[in-house]
Amino acid sequence: MKQSSEELSWEEGVARYLRDNPDYFERHEELLDVLRIPHAGRGVAVSLLERQAVLLRERLAAKDRERQDFLAAARENDALAERLHRLAVALIDAASLDDVFGSVYDLGRHQLKLDAVTVLLGVDGGPLGGRAEFVPPDDARLRRALALARDRPLCGPKAVLSEVRSLLGADEARIASVALVPLRDPVRSGLILLGSQDRDRFPVGAGTVYLGRFGDLVMRAVARQLDRP
């Protein structure tokens, strides 16, 4: 045990010396071709310079992947922002509830290529004008979904999906992931349920900033129509 401890201390001393003297191999260039380092995964030894080159290529490749992921996310965010802008313009121009909900369904089903879009809003007196979107405020399906979301957009696969199956209707069997978007104003509560056959479309922990903005726009537009004299 003592010998193992001494060997470890020696290794630490060498490592510390090389860190403190980065010009060591400049003063001892002959060692660069003599030192051999096992190449991970290949079972062969390579020179220190070769190993450094491999590590550099791997780091550059990792950085390139990070850059590509960042650019892809930026492009996706730009596209979402543009769609939200178009939705906001459509909702401002909406002259009726038909226009409001039509814009919501168009965004979800056609622009975002989703497989299910459900809107529910609790309104006193039960269904309003025969619209399927309006239910009594104490509707069990609505209350259960809102309790699950806890006033914030929520994404998830089957675990979340199992709690909102009754809202999907005929689309239930095809949906693999969902997003819940709560709708609230001072006097009303509701939600938008977005569903996709792609289980990775709405993964757990996905960013929900744009979903929250989407819900705010829709709730404001619906409330404006309902509060008209």
Low-confidence stretches: 1-5
Q: What kind of sheet is the major sheet?
A: 5 strands, mixed
Whole-number tally of structural domains? 2
Structural classification = alpha+beta
C-alpha termini separation: 87 Å
Strand content: 5-15%
CATH architecture of the largest domain: 2-Layer Sandwich
**Gyration radius from CA atoms, angstroms:** 29 Å
Q: What is the H-and-E element order? A: HHHEEHHEEHEHEEH
The CATH class label of the largest domain is Alpha Beta
User: What would CATH call the homologous superfamily of the largest domain?
Assistant: GAF domain
Tally of DSSP β-strands:
7
- The best one-word shape is elongated
Overall pLDDT level: 81
Across the major sheet, the strand order is 4-3-7-6-5
CATH fold-level name of the largest domain: Beta-Lactamase
Count of DSSP-assigned helices: 8
Throw out a few tags for this protein:
single chain; 229 residues; alpha+beta; Beta-Lactamase; 2 domains; 5-stranded mixed sheet; two-stranded antiparallel sheet; 8 helices; elongated; disordered N terminus
Question: Short description, anyone?
Answer:
By secondary structure, this protein is an alpha+beta fold.
Describe the overall structure:
- The protein has 2 domains: 2-62, no CATH class; 94-226, GAF domain (Beta-Lactamase, 2-Layer Sandwich), CATH 3.30.450.40.
- 53% of the residues lie in helices and 15% in strands.
- It is built from 8 helices and 7 strands; from the N terminus they run αααββααββαβαββα.
- The strands form 2 sheets. It has a 5-stranded mixed beta sheet, with helices on both faces.
- The radius of gyration is 29 Å and the shape is elongated.
- Mean pLDDT is 81; it is low at 1-5.
